[in-house]
């Protein structure tokens, strides 16, 4: 927004595209019924942000993708684009923008093509985005001329790390500050933020200071580090480079930097939140972003596909036998700290000797719809690292210190409420499973986020299989 403010102050005509159709194509990040509400929310939020820093809005306009992307002309150009671009180039273009899985949906390959065509249909001279968009920009410059359209200029902004030190993620609550977060929420998130003494490379707090606070400072203003007289008193900086050097030399304590950023951040958020005190905007914010754990009769009412909807628990196999009608299957009785052990059927006969299955601790997906496997009803799935060529399967190892019934969650998704039963028609497991795998460190992860015990935070691991899908 601060860079868009620069464009507007310089007299540029700025069009902000609400890419509602793109949002749906990117692995259906948002259901259709929420997209219209969210574009309304973003329009109000953007106007509030720009107004709060004194930016004129006369040359700013908003366009929703579905206003023109469903037209006959645009649709024909999508087909034309698909006839000249290779699958390799489309996947490469979206590598840092579209969610990457081993078996991508066709929608994710279309996404970069639409973004390229948007330049022509919006009649812009230049497109602006983060550096994560650069591969899409490169693809646009290559392929638009093949359709008879001129290539555009591309501007890019650096990507500010999230507060956790990694890439900021809308699905990871603690990685970001929301516009409507109250001072208590801001304090809590900054307190947990990664801000290692002397580390200036992966420091979301310091990056925010550089790219937002310093870039918005007016002439004659300075950034104040507030600290007690016992620790040297307050410091003021007019150049970010001086602040960065002082932090690198550990002359500024992370706690003092966080406290100072907290004050500055709250002063930026206050006028925006004042605008959002209007009842209509408050109602809009609630509808656009309903609580993720909102539940109706023990079934999650949201359609967002997040790993918090999976009921994964630690179990102990207390009884195991060969399936009477299937040579490759075990029938297990698994203690999940329920009233009685749960029956689960697993295809592990050829990979784990029966004596190693008895009294084994396992990780179980518990809310799949029960299904009969060769006449025996299975009420769960033992999660395993598994590769097909050569065929190898290895049950995941539960977190150290865990016991039967303990919840296993994905880091960053600890607070969601799992569905009582995953609706097969919604294909929640099918959409989440391709991103479940083991990594180089033998940790089980979902999109790079560790599977951990909800109680003690210890990770789920595998004995020997690296970079293997989890099924």
TrEMBL record:
Assigned keywords, A-Z: Aminoacyl-tRNA synthetase, ATP-binding, Cytoplasm, Ligase, Nucleotide-binding, Nucleus, Protein biosynthesis, RNA-binding, tRNA-binding
GO terms for cellular component: cytoplasm; nucleus
E.C. code: 6.1.1.1
Reactions the enzyme catalyzes: tRNA(Tyr) + L-tyrosine + ATP = L-tyrosyl-tRNA(Tyr) + AMP + diphosphate + H(+)
Domain TRNA-binding as annotated: residue spans: 306-409
Molecular function (Gene Ontology), one example: tRNA binding
InterPro entries, per database record: aa-tRNA-synth_Ic, NA-bd_OB-fold, Rossmann-like_a/b/a_fold, tRNA-bd_dom, Tyr-tRNA-ligase, Tyrosine-tRNA_ligase_regulator
Entry's Gene Ontology BP terms: tyrosyl-tRNA aminoacylation
Pfam family, one: tRNA_bind
Localization in the cell: Cytoplasm; Nucleus
Family the entry assigns: Belongs to the class-I aminoacyl-tRNA synthetase family.
Protein name, entry field: Tyrosine--tRNA ligase
Source species of the chain: Pieris brassicae (White butterfly)
């Amino acid at each position: 927004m601060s860079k868009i403010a620069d464009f507007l102050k310089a007299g540029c005509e700025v069009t902000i595209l609400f890419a509602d159709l793109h949002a749906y194509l990117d692995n259906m990040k948002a259901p259709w019924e929420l997209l219209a509400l969210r574009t309304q929310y973003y329009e109000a939020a953007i106007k509030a942000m720009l107004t709060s820093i004194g930016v004129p809005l006369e040359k700013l306009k908003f366009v929703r993708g579905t206003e023109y992307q469903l037209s006959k002309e645009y649709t024909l150009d999508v087909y034309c684009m698909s006839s000249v671009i290779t699958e390799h180039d489309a996947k490469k273009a979206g590598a840092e923008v579209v969610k990457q899985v081993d078996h991508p949906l066709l929608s994710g390959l279309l996404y970069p093509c639409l973004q390229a065509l948007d330049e022509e249909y919006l009649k812009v001279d230049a497109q602006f985005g983060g550096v994560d968009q650069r591969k899409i920009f490169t693809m646009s410059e290559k392929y638009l001329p093949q359709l008879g359209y001129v290539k555009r200029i591309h501007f890019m902004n650096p990507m500010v790390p999230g507060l956790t030190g990694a890439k900021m993620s809308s699905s990871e609550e603690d990685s970001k500050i929301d516009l409507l977060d109250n001072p208590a929420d801001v304090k809590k998130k900054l307190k947990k933020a990664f801000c290692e003494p002397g580390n200036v490379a992966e420091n979301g707090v310091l990056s925010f200071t550089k790219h937002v606070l310093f870039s918005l400072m007016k002439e004659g203003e300075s950034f104040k580090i507030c600290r007690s007289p016992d620790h040297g008193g307050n410091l003021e900086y007019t150049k970010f480079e001086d602040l960065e050097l002082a932090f690198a030399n550990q002359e500024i304590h992370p706690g003092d930097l966080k406290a100072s950023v907290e004050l500055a951040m709250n002063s930026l958020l206050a006028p925006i939140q004042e605008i959002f005190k209007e009842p209509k905007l408050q109602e809009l914010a609630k509808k656009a972003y309903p609580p993720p754990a909102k539940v109706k009769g023990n079934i999650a009412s949201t359609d967002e596909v997040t790993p918090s909807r999976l009921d994964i628990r630690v179990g102990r196999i207390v009884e195991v036998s060969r399936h009477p009608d299937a040579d490759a299957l075990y029938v297990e009785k698994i203690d999940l700290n329920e009233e009685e052990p749960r029956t689960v059927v697993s295809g592990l006969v050829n990979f784990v000797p029966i004596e190693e299955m008895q009294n084994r601790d396992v990780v179980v997906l518990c809310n799949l719809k029960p299904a009969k496997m060769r006449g025996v009803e299975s009420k769960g799935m033992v999660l395993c690292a598994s590769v097909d060529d050569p065929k190898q399967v290895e049950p995941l190892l539960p977190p150290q210190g865990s016991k039967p019934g303990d919840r296993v969650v994905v880091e960053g998704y600890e607070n969601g409420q799992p569905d009582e039963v995953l609706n097969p028609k919604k294909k929640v497991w099918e959409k989440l499973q391709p991103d479940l795998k083991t990594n180089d460190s033998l940790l089980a992860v979902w999109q790079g986020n560790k599977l951990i015990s909800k109680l003690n935070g210890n990770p789920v691991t595998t004995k020997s299989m690296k970079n293997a899908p989890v099924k």
